[in-house]
Amino acid sequence: MLDENIKNQLLTIINPERYLDQPEALACYAYDAFVEESLPDAVIFPKTTNEVSGILKIASQFKVPVTARGAGTSVCGAPIPVKHGIIVCFSKMDTILDVNTRDRYIIVQPGVVNADIQKALAPFGFFYPPDPGSMNTATIGGNIAQNAGGPRCLKYGVTVDYVLGLEVVLASGKIIRFGSKNVKDVTGYKLTSLFCGSEGTLGIVTEAILKVRPLPETTKTLMVMFDDLDNTARAVTDIIGSGILPAAMELMDQMTLTAIEDAANLGLDKTAQGSLLIELDGVEEACEKEMKQIIEKVKENGATHIQEANSESQRQNIWTARRAAYGIFAKLAPDIMSEDVTVPVSKVPAMIRKIVAIAHKYRLKVGVLAHAGDGNMHPMIPTNKADRDEWHRVKKAFDEIFEAAAQLDGTLSGEHGIGLAKSKYLPLVMNQDTIDFMKIIKKAVDPDNILNPGKFA
Amino acid sequence: MTPKVPPNCGKCGLCLNVCPVYKQMKEEQASPRARMQLIRAHKNQTIASSPYLKEIMSKCLMCGSCTANCPSGIDHYSAFMKMREQMAEDHGEPAAVKSLIYLLARDYRTRWGSTLARTGQKLLPKKIAESYKLGNIALKNMPRLNAVPFRNTCEEIILPDTQKPDRQKPDTPKTDTKWQNIQRQGSDKETGTVAYFTGCATNYIYDDVGLATVGILKRMGYKIIIPKNQTCCSIPLLFHGAKKQAQKNIETNIEALKGLKVDAILVDCSTCGEALKHIYPSFFNKNDPASHHAIAIAQKIGDVLSFIDDHFDRLTFNASPKEKPVVTYHAPCHSKNSFQSHTTIENLIKKLPFVIYKKTCDTEECCGGGGTFFYEFPKVSKEMTDKKINNAKAIHATQWLTDCPVCRMNLSGNLKKEDNLIIKHPLSLIYSALKPL
Which class is domain B315-432? Predict the structure, then answer.
């Protein structure tokens, strides 16, 4: 619990109804979807930028840590308050301030849920491309903090590619605004890129101007089966290498396919060693032409079965299989570990071979699932944390998976962020000078280290 | 590959956006994920039992949406029920809930309570009835209780309609004779036999639903058995942690329903259905003979609307009016999550030739009623209910159909006269349009 004096000062700017510090309530803000937990001392639900500014002024005066939180769906521990202090929860600051599809932007408060942005845009024939798996729950503030991605980011890019402007409250409580409503804007440092993905360590986003796009005219979906996982991965490299850019390209291995088929009976071929779900969108004619090219490419790589969705319901069926994967894996064992290492697309076959070999070495089951078109791997290892020996092997396996990705010119995270989960691996992909440079920036904007301390370190 | 150990909550948070209470309150402690975490923390003794912990556990509609949507297959529903039992033991229940449990735990008490309440409704000075509220619902907007409990008005075995023309108009019965029509003897067209579990709401509050159920099933050619000894399904008791009292009721109902030679055992309330179909079979130890009977009963449980949908061609309707009324549907949580009957019911309503069906933008959202939730947490409940009402008004519906008595009570209790909207059970609508033989 916070010092009585600090609490009283906070209560002069926040309605007590939006201030929680009962132990039962605090326990509910100690976690996200990552394994670790740490209790905050207080939880505050701001409704305005001025309230956020007021909270930070008090926090910086007393050097109390402040961690921003949206819906707590981060999978890397980003909003876990490891140094305790205040959780600023944005779930009630959730107004869509402006929908302007003529100028192609939307202005939102940080607590707006990603799916609600899609709902607000759909009647105008527009959408907001980043589509993280948690989009029905996750808030846009969290998406920006983690620079979230999703399957269709292969073609459209991740969150940072859609942030036109931000309003940010700094550790001092000062409110800054940068970027604008313009798609083209080279005025000053590109601060949107600095804050996007900074996981709340540099400032707290209180408003965002986001770029939106018209919905594509057509969507074409294809499910392809292979009798060899290596061929599956090579087909990915070939298609992307030939210049075609599908909206999504999802790879699943035999273990994943079998688990899905056993649980959901969707008619998947359990003998297939690998599969690709490929989705194209855009103008009808272009999609048709590219679809033909893709079919040729997968045939060249030994596709054993090709199914094109003829209707929306068939398309949904194909996606149902892909979306069910995580849930079905989650049911295979008490716990499931998944990461999001990413490699250049030409290295996808090599990376998959590595993942399989590492899992084999540590006697673990692994399901290989990937947003393969952009090299974003999601190896999933079902495990039981209570089994200490196995848990130890799982950790070892992930250490080696990260090392393997780094050796293949890859990176630690494609879309989840670093948080608590991956900060120890930073030296694998950054030299000390680069890490020091990040520290210099941090020190300059947050000298007392009150903003989400314990992350990136 | 089946797991040896039950799954742990992966804290993914996908239950947040399907939880009606979280969506309204936007606070983590109101979410299924938080309740699971707190249950675990309480077990590990890092969080002590407290009235506030009990409040967090009670601030849940027990709608089952989290369980139905959890990717890891967590059974929140059972975990919450167990925790509520613990909380009720530690901290007791509010007086109103306690008396509800007392009444529902024995059928004679429920009967006695409803008689008293009905007398009370009659004697209550108008001024008081208008100014007092139960939760958000003004007493004057609470439903009138049945004059006589439904089951007392009918025989235990009811024979199907004959093909012979009937002198009395069956669909506009006089109060005294309404059951004479229903219980007419002498069938020459018996299609099969069904049992009818009426639930407390039909028995004590909404006898129009019982009347419609029996009327429609008879018309379809079914012999109907309404076992006399049935009692409250126990869900309200289990939700408030009164497991002991619940067990008595469950045993009574199993006794009343076991071994019946029927094609189906039908319910008009999906919450009763949830109890009979999903809770009874796992309530007892596997070796207990009651468990064996419960499983056999569960296999026959179905909701009466889906049953009607299966045999829709057996019904003929009056000529449709020139101006068909616009109707819409509110899908109760238990129809959606436990019984999965809501789409069938919605499609059945769409098929009715004498109405125009319009969907609201939030047909499947919870109305905020949730058993006693509307009474215990009126503020959150009211915000949810008002949203529903505004969306139903927006499509200019004049009749709002729903197959759950609590939704019906909650929605109609919060409607104003000028809203020009009546709440009905779909069965009543269907029954009122049946063509006389």
Answer: alpha beta
